[in-house]
């Protein structure tokens, strides 16, 4: 029985693994029960894979790559299957968004925004695939002719986090499958239910047997996947700490590895920025998904003479946030994903207080009016030393540091004084000035104010924020090998 959705309930139970396009029993059955971080209600159950289950999934993917039709189909034929999946997914995207809210506490507004992002991201990949130079016949140097082919890299292990599981998964699945790879998708335990549906929809869309498996696994079993000799390429999104581990394991075996990791992004507010507009936008830029987003702009750099004004406005904005049930459309901030995550964030706040950091609003304990759930009070520290731990380490929660500066040159230096380099923004009405400053920031993506990110452009990080890029042609590049034929 593939799964059961209980009548009159939002609960979904999965008992079997999804390997190679079908549901199969685990070799060592372990079922995890996922509970809402808001009220502890059971969201559903899902199986955890064993090392032997990983072996089966990789073997299926290996056979499908080495002998099956998928890598040998035309790109257009592969796209037709993926576009059928996309249509099936779109028809249920609201259901999936609501499930994500229940699983990991993401507020309704955020999971709906991710729903829109998935739609746009998908179309961007389809556009990139149809303009990608899969074959290039050209004059060779110094003589003759050459054929440059882009071929699939092989069997991919796609390892994703819990904070935007479908969006991150599809950001790896689409380019890998478009290229002709076969994929084993490894889910985070915290969102082991919602990812199950991806397998079933791809099977319904007509993806050939063996091409795709979906497995949740613990740390030890996940490492077995990373070092498996049948895996050619690892695509990972998650913490920098885990990324280092994967890079070490994969590098020792000369596997292709791409890593989209953490961030401690800076919003640089210039003296001529509109205070009200900037603070209103930073509500969404600094506190998305309860602060659990790698691109959250958790360092807000402001001119020293205007720090008091910005602090007052930020405090008013934060204290007006609606905190509560993540499934409620009026809620802005929900619970963090787990008690372990809540305790980690609380420890950061306590240590910062002990070191003398000034809390403008927030702090430890539950928000006012909340008596259950994994909630953190949204917290603003002001007049923060950029070298302090709370300004340098990724907290992954609703905690923001306001850092004053005395010149634009100092603002650039402060923004760059970080081990991370994933995202950021510059706030000023002067577009030319924003661009000039953005060119100096060592980060993968930076916006002028609230500008939208181009999904056909590469996304990824400098320094400890990762290796490689996603989206557009650069995203496809990570799933291909280059072959040259001299003619």
Which secondary structure elements does this structure contain, and how are they paired or packed?
Elements: E1 3-5, E2 12-14, E3 17-19, E4 22-24, E5 31-35, E6 42-47, H1 51-67, H2 75-91, H3 93-104, H4 108-131, E7 135-139, E8 145-152, E9 155-159, H5 165-179, E10 182-187, H6 196-205, E11 212-216, H7 219-226, E12 233-237, H8 240-252, E13 256-260, E14 266-269, H9 275-286, E15 299-303, H10 307-319, H11 339-354, E16 358-363, E17 377-382, H12 389-392, E18 399-405, H13 408-416, E19 420-421, E20 424-427, H14 431-438, E21 447-448, E22 462-463, E23 466-467, H15 472-477, E24 480-486
Parallel strand pairs: 2-6, 9-10, 9-12, 10-11, 12-13, 14-15, 14-20, 15-18, 17-18, 20-21
Antiparallel strand pairs: 1-2, 3-4, 5-6, 7-8, 8-24, 13-23, 16-17, 19-22
Helix pairs in contact: 1-7, 2-4, 2-5, 2-6, 3-4, 4-5, 9-10
Detailed description of the structure:
With 487 residues, this protein is α/β, with parallel strands linked by helices. It folds into 2 domains: 3-261 and 465-486, Aldehyde Dehydrogenase, Chain A, domain 1 (3-Layer(aba) Sandwich); 266-454, Aldehyde Dehydrogenase, Chain A, domain 2. The chain is built from 15 helices and 24 strands. It has helices spanning 51-67, 75-91, 93-104, 108-131, 165-179, 196-205, 219-226, 240-252, 275-286, 307-319, 339-354, 389-392, 408-416, 431-438, 472-477; strands at 3-5, 12-14, 17-19, 22-24, 31-35, 42-47, 135-139, 145-152, 155-159, 182-187, 212-216, 233-237, 256-260, 266-269, 299-303, 358-363, 377-382, 399-405, 420-421, 424-427, 447-448, 462-463, 466-467, 480-486. Strands 16-17-18-15-14-20-21 form a 7-stranded mixed β-sheet, with helices on both faces.
